[in-house]
Amino acid sequence: QVQFVESGGGLVQPGGSLKLSCAASGFTFSRYGMRWYRQAPGKERELVAAISSNGRSTSYDDSVKGRFSISRDNAKNTVYLQMNSLKPEDTANYYCHAPQFASWGQGTQVTVSS
User: Fold this and answer.
1) What is the torsion angle, in degrees rounded to the nearest 10, for the CA atoms of residue 60, residue 61, residue 67 and residue 73?
2) HSE-up of 103 (CA within 13 Å, CB side)?
3) What is the DSSP letter of 61?
4) 3-class secondary-structure state, position 14
5) CB-neighbour burial class of residue 38 (10 A; exposed 0-12, middle 13-18, buried 19+)
6) Rounded Cα distance, 75 and 93, in Å
7) Interval 65-97: pLDDT, tens
8) CA angle centred on 87, ends 84 and 89, rounded to 5°
9) CA–CA gap between residue 113 and residue 79 (Å, rounded)
10) d(CA 50, CA 61)
């Protein structure tokens, strides 16, 4: 079955950095675009970044553009999210997802606070 396992979250001070990882399984990873989403308490899940199946095309929400970078390693079935210059408003649970599938992982919590 399709599975996504996110990791790399934690507590970081404003201005700090984190790199999230997402290991995918149960499908041919290299054939699908991947996305990172986030959901803060009391808010709807929002799309943060997306990457094409071959990694050559990326896109970002305006709120993270210039600070976050999405990448992937198709040999490892893994997608990454490098987050720099973190702000308190980046605090959320972060999920990776391929929109063709219904499955979601548990996410990884990112908390930005001094």
Assistant:
1) -30
2) 12
3) -
4) coil
5) buried
6) 26
7) 999 999 999 999 999 999 999 999 999 999 999
8) 130
9) 25
10) 9
